[in-house]
Amino acid sequence: MKSAGAIVIDAMKMPSAERIGAAEFEILKYEFKRDLDAYLRGLGPSSPVHSLADVIDFNTRNAATEMPYFGQEILIDAQSKGPLTDERYRKALATARALSRAHGIDAALAKDRLDALVAPTGPLPWMIDYANGDHASGGCTQMPAVSGYPHITVPAGFAFGLPVGISFFAGAYSEARLIRLAYAFEQITKARRSPQFLATAPLHT
Fold first, then answer.
1. What is the C-alpha to C-alpha distance for residues 129 and 131, in angstroms, rounded to an integer?
2. Does 119 lie in the same domain as 32?
3. pLDDT for residue 6 is more than 70
4. Which of 4, 27, 115, 133 has the most C-beta neighbours closer than 10 Å?
């Protein structure tokens, strides 16, 4: 990007990203219950489940098949949530919006008068760990997702034979600028490759 004329400021920090997790997770559980219930209600009489409560009951009755490694604590927690008018939900939503917008992306852009923020989209895929769960580390999608601001990702290259994406994101209504930046990056790098559908990943540099 520098060779193409961009001014890149490294090591951008967004401290609010470290504090947003609890509020985001609370919002997720409330909205998950509401939206899943709405979807399942529309499946018709042939469906074995019509609500999140039905899903939990189905999993419980078929635990050996449905939950051989992990439980459904998150589903049960989501089921306990009330409507989106609950004060706890509204407080979490206000907190997440403030941390991801004014104290997050907007603050980072304003500090150095940036046009956009650029970072690796996510970590490389990780092995399934039945004892400890996910091992995802890194990535930048949380803040734009929570804020509702535009975000675009394009191929950046490969590491150990696995694809790596790069993200461009900024404040509200910045879609046109982000599309221009991402398109320019694609034209310069030509990092996109057609899928090969390999049986295994060539885990070498």
1. 5
2. no
3. yes
4. 27
pLDDT at 204: 61
Question: Cβ distance 27 to 96 under 8 Å?
Answer: yes
From CA 133, how far away is CA 62, in angstroms rounded?
21
Q: Residue 69's Cα: distance from chain center in Å?
A: 24
Q: Which one of 89, 113, 137 terminates a domain?
A: 113
Report yes or no on 9 lying in a domain: no
pLDDT band at 127 (very low <50, low <70, confident <90, very high): confident
> So what's the pLDDT on residue 88?
97
Instruction: Point out the domain boundary residue: 72, 94, 113.
Output: 113
How far is it, in rounded angstroms, from Cα 34 to Cα 134?
25
Q: Hey, what are 201's tokens?
A: 């990943």
> What is the distance between the alpha carbons of residues 157 and 148, in angstroms, rounded to a whole number?
27
CB atoms within 10 A of CB 57: 12
DSSP letter, residue 16: G
Residue type, 31: E
How many CB atoms sit inside 10 A of residue 122's CB? 16
Residue span of the structural domain in which 165 resides: 115-205
d(CA 160, CA 141): 22
Stated pTM of the model: 0.85
Are residue 179 and residue 198 in the same domain, yes or no? Answer: yes
